[in-house]
Structures are given as structure tokens and as C-alpha cells.
Amino acid sequence: MKLSLIFYLFVLSQAFPLAQEDTISLYNNDLRIIKTSPNEFKIVSEDEKLKLKQEGVNFIDVTNYYPIDAVVGQEVLASPRTRLKNLKDWFKRPKQVDDEPEAPIYNYPIKANYEKEVHFLFEGINKTRIEEKLTKFSSFWTRYYKSKSGFDSSNWLYKQLISISIHSDLIQIEKFHHKEWDQFSIIARFKGEIDDIVVVGAHQDSINLKDPLHGRSPGADDDGSGSMTILEAFQLLAEDKDFKPYNTLEFQWYSAEEVGLLGSQDIFNTYKSKDKKVVAMLQQDMTGYTKDTIEAGIEVHIALIQDFVSQPLNSFLKMLFDTYSDIPYHLMSCGYACSDHASARRNGYPSSFMMEAVPNSNAKADWGHSENDVIDQLDFNHMKDHAKLTIAYAYELSLARDLY
Ligand SMILES: *[C@@H]1O[C@H](CO)[C@@H](O)[C@H](O)[C@H]1NC(C)=O
């Protein structure tokens, strides 16, 4: 990609005569700034972004959230030609910039404190209900962040949350709007005694990588499964009259994950700028596919991601597996920016990520992000396993005191 970046900048520098260079803006010319690793930045067009995604490269699109002018510093005051040259040079240099502050270390519980309550909630997990809701959620033509049906699917989800929580005065449902596209993110908040926040996340949007705007994209597994898994956990907690969290507990459904974690960045960057304290974030992106794992003769498990995540939070999650899960975890790596937990991490919030059983093959790449990600091949027992861990995490951590 380096080559195409340089080529692109070359074309860019040739395409505009000097007098017009003033109008060159990263924000208005279909140019995006993406991060493909903690220190690696690229300038790409929307098309190149899509191509990277097709090649399986993960990234964070930081265009709207990166203080590029500050980084290039005084150089913004230079003449347009110098500025463009400096910008080019800046992107070619290895980056010293660290915009990913270390998360504080919190004292997460080292043992479960609410086994009776949590096990009681497990009784209520309803696979039929998850299946019904996922059937509806994956029936929208696509949940692409810029599509009309993607907007409609957000509204459907919002209405589900409203109807679940209508009688609760503890819960607020918030539409989190994004400036550049219509599909909103959604936050369902249990107001705690204090403002520290425990987050459960999944992403709403889907994508057909061959034709994002028009192609069919049921996104049943990616990430309809995670979205409906955490919805089930939310419903059980919302209907539990005895549940009153100490920390504020938020369930978040992100828009625009598939295009560089845009929705979750909007939320966590906003939280950071408002000095909100997120003490833990757990992402669940794909919770329903076990077929390849079973066929490969590997035990059904949950993949606990071990790279670019919070190790203290992972220790807490391992304790939850020991206490609450019928199936084990397998440690897996998924690389930089592989889902929305990366947006929390980038803002110095501890975050972790668990996903469905991962076989030792890449078979899934054939149908992910296409019209083939349909509900028929999903395993609702697996979603139930994920729902259990979600409930355990939400319950134990939102009631934890003395985290610091
Ligand atoms: C589970 O959900 C289905 C579909 O919403 C519902 O018809 C059924 O009564 C539920 N089962 C229980 C035990 O609540």
C-alpha cells in the first residue's frame, strides 16, 4: 500500500494547480486518514479503503478524529505547497506519535460475588426470542451505515429497546447521532450510583464488500449475532427489578464499524473529551458460528482475544469463564483494530473482545461480508453461551466497588 499512497499523493500534487491548493482538504476530497497499526498511518481514498477491507486489512478511520493540523504543527501556517509537501513527508516518516494512551489499571474483582443472582438470570435466556429478533434484524436488505435500510434497522433496534425499558426509571435509551451519515448508534444506559461506566458493545451495521451501497448484506453473524446476544442480556437485566448497578452500565450498539470503527470512535472520543470514565468495555462481534470448528474436530469454545486488549480485564473475564461458562475460552489474536474495542482502547479505556469459536482455517472468509452471512448456519446455543458471559460481566462489574 505504500506504493499506492505515494502514487496517490503524487497524483494529488499534480492534479491541483498552485492557486487551488488552498482548497485541498483531507475532509472534503474523498480522502481518509487511516491507522493500520498503533504507529502506522495512511492516506487513502474511499475506494482504497474498501479495497483494503476486501483484502482483510483492519484499520481505524481516524479522519475526523485525528488532530492532523496539530501533528503537522506550525506547518499548517506554511504556504499551501509547503504544507502539502510537509504532509507528504510526515506520512512517509515513521511515527513517534502516540495517540493511544495506556489505560489505568483497575482492581477488577478476583472472584464472583453474585453467583446466585447471575445464575438466576441465566434461567431466563430465551433462544427462541434471540432467533426471532435476529431473523428480523438480518432481514433488512443491508445494514450498511449509509443505506436507508441501515437507518431503518437502527430504528427497529431503538424501538425494541424502548419497549423493553418502558417501565424502568433506571434506564435511558439514547440515539447517538453521527454527523456524516444517518444510521445512529444506540446507548441503553442503566444509571448507576456513580458515573463510572461499564460498557457492553456490539456493532449494528453490516456490509457487502462487493457492493456496499446496493448489495444484500444480512449480517446475521457479523454482527447481528452479537447485537442480539447483548440485546437478550440487556432485556434480562432490564426486567430484573432487583438489579440496581453501582457503576453506570451501558449497552452500546455501534453504527459504521465496517468502515473503520467510525461509530464507536465517535462515542469514545466524545466520552474522552467530556472526561467520562469508562472502567471497562467488552465487545462481542460475531457470537453464532460454530460449524467450521465442529467440523475441524476442535472443541466448541469462545475466542478470547489476547492482542491489543486489556490484560487486567482479560484476567477478570477468565475468572468469569471459570465461574460461569459451560464452554472454555481459547486465546486468539486478531490484530490491530479488528473491532470496536479498539476505539475504546485508543482513548485510554481498558477494553477486551470475545468472539465465537475460531477454527484453524479461514473458511469463513468466503461468506463473511456478503449475501451469504445468513441466519440458517448459526448456532443459538453458542449465542446463549455468549449471553451468559455478557450477563455475568455486566452484573459483576457494574456492582463492583473499589475499582481504584
Ligand atoms: C421465549 O420467547 C418466545 C418468543 O418471543 C416466546 O413465545 C416464549 O414464550 C418465550 N419463552 C419463555 C419461557 O419465556
From TrEMBL:
Stored Gene3D superfamilies: Zn peptidases
Pfam families linked: Peptidase_M28
EC number(s) from the headed UniProt entry: 3.4.-.-
Assigned keywords, A-Z: Aminopeptidase, Hydrolase, Metal-binding, Protease, Signal, Zinc
Cofactor(s) essential for the protein: Zn(2+)
Signal peptide: 1-15
Sections of the chain in a coiled coil: none
Location of the Peptidase M28 domain: 186-393
Protein name, entry field: Peptide hydrolase
Organism of provenance: Candida verbasci
